[in-house]
Design brief:
The protein is mostly helical. It starts with a helix and ends in a 12-residue tail after the last helix. 14% of the residues are buried.
Length: 86
């Protein structure tokens, strides 16, 4: 009985790990897509706002448990922000 409980706990932890890693991956892709819009013209304030919105959401997600532990284990790094004029 205790072996089954241990297996269930390990499976649940693995499912959480995979779900968080996939969510962080999607958020990182959103940041990269916003960067691709910003990269050709870094003076575009609207593109900076969109990029910063995605970067802030991603960076905030990296600081919350259990994502902070998973990010450290899997190499997710915070995105840098651009200063906007507004």
């Amino acid at each position: 009985m205790q072996v089954l409980l241990t297996i269930a706990l390990i499976a649940a932890a693995a499912a959480v790990f995979i779900a968080v890693q996939q969510r962080l991956g999607r958020m990182r892709r959103d940041v990269r897509a916003a960067w691709e819009l910003l990269e050709p013209n870094q003076d575009n304030e609207a593109a900076k706002v969109v990029y910063n919105k995605h970067a802030v959401a991603y960076n905030n997600a990296l600081q919350v448990f259990p994502a902070n532990i998973i990010a450290a284990l899997t190499g997710f790094k915070p995105a840098r922000l651009f200063k906007t004029e507004s």
